[in-house]
Amino acid sequence: MAAVKNKIVLAYSGGLDTSVILKWLINVYKADVIAYCCDVGQKEDLDAVKEKALKTGAAEAIVEDMREEFAKNYIFPALRGNALYEGSYLLGTAIARPLIAKRQMEIAALTGSNCVAHGATGKGNDQVRFELAYSAIDPDIKIIAPWREWRIASRTELVKYAEDNGIPVPVTKEKPYSSDKNLFHISYEGGILEVLDNAPDESMFEITASPQNAPDIPESVEIGYEKGNPVSLNGKKLSPFKIVDKLNMLAGRNGIGRADIVETRITGMKSRGVYETPAGTVLSSAHRLLESITLTGEEIELKNSLAPQYSKLIYEGGMFSPEFKAIQALIDGTQESVNGKIGLELYKGNIKVLYRKSAGSLYSKNIVTFEDDKGAYSQSDATGFIKLKSVRYKLMEKARKA
Predict the structure, then answer these.
(1) What is the pLDDT of residue 1?
(2) Is residue 178 a contact partner of residue 271, using CB atoms and an 8 Å limit?
(3) How far apart (Å, rounded) are the C-alpha atoms in residues 161 and 167?
(4) Does domain 184-357 have CATH number 1.10.150.120?
(5) Are 118 and 108 in contact (CB under 8 A)?
(6) Residue 149 · residue 116 · CB < 8 Å
(7) What confidence score (pLDDT) does residue 359 get?
(8) Is domain 7-179 in CATH 3.40.50.850, yes or no?
(9) Nearest to 286 by CA among 219, 382, 355, 236
(10) Cys staple from 71: which of 66, 155, 240, 260, with CB 3.0 to 4.6 Å?
(11) pLDDT digits (tens, 9 = 90+) for 221-266
(12) Which parts of the chain have pLDDT scores under 70?
């Protein structure tokens, strides 16, 4: 009986890595390769990407618009959880990979493909994110990770393979680093950024102005929230994708959203990334501001205690794990009361709070005021409270003296 021919769904971007991988899979595995390109807001010519895949030898090329899905079901949940890896990274790449992997697997099922492949290297995070998602959806799927199989060991060899196989090479001397772009952010790493002494060159940034070159007049924005999700911008109801897309432009032109981070990869090594996340920076700040008046201190404390573990699960590809789903359910249970409006002023890289409004606000000026509260709060009630709180200190000091 003749062997069944492999059919592979490749996560394809049209860049150097996945273009070479597409040709390599055809050459080595003698397989039909379906190039899958997921539009998560990278704002590239995806018709050209599709055409390039077919010219490179793909049996089929599929391009899907998943921008609304990405914003609603991946970006917004992360923002509800105040996700921030190692206190600084808003996880723009990490939250996109599970969506791409999930759709890859669905397309594999629809097309009868027995293999999936990705372009992540053996040193990076994305190999883990893709493969954990694949395995969670179908543990029997065959996974091909070319960077862990082939003998190509450097970008130089990758470029040579591309040239030898007639594949256009997008990397030039003018862009000596790699980048990943989606609706939520743009990341830059590798190349000149591997030297920590090298500050990012201004010409690198694509969606944020330098704070020095941002407008001299502040710009005000209002973000409306329902159940922890942004639903309007400047009084206008917009879809999740359009809110993030519009806010990227507003915040970006005011110099907001740049970050230069050295983070700990899943593999344990330190890696430097430079990021542009204008909308994410504003939405993360606005959400915390609204929570400060709509959640109790205990709810905020609980969320803050879970945030490091929650963020690490996202970073390490655990969005399909039972523990992640449990934490997300708990987080979402706190968001019923997170409704209202936040007014902000954007100016040269800074975010200034203009106002916080919510019909369910727990803030009471009548109680907190330093002026006459007209009996709203009895200050003498604090006496017994303080006595109870001080019991352990008194006992400890007595024991020490004894």
Answers:
(1) 40
(2) no
(3) 8
(4) no
(5) no
(6) no
(7) 97
(8) no
(9) 355
(10) 240
(11) 999 999 999 999 999 999 999 999 999 999 999 999 999 999 999 9
(12) 1-4, 170-176
Cα angle for residues 365, 369, 375 (degrees, 5° grid)? 90
Active-site annotation, residues: 17, 97, 126, 178
Q: What is the pLDDT of residue 2?
A: 43
- Domain locations in the chain as residue ranges: 7-179, 184-357
Report residue 220 as tokens: 């005000």
For residues 266 and 315, is the Cβ–Cβ distance under 8 A? yes
Q: Which residues contact 135 (CB under 8 A, 6 or more apart)?
A: 141, 143
Q: Per residue in 141-172, is it b (16+ CB within 10 Å) or e — as a string?
A: beebbbbeeeebeeeeebbebbeebebeeebe
**CA-CA distance, 202 to 225, in Å (whole number)?**
34
Q: How far apart are CA 32 and CA 7, in angstroms?
A: 5
Q: Is 160 helix (H, G, I), strand (E, B) or coil?
A: helix
DSSP-derived letter for residue 338 is: -
Identify the H or E element spanning 224: strand 219-226
Topology agreement, domain 7-179 and domain 184-357: no
- 387 phi and psi, to 5 degrees? -60, -45
Q: Which residues pair with 271 in a beta bridge?
A: 263
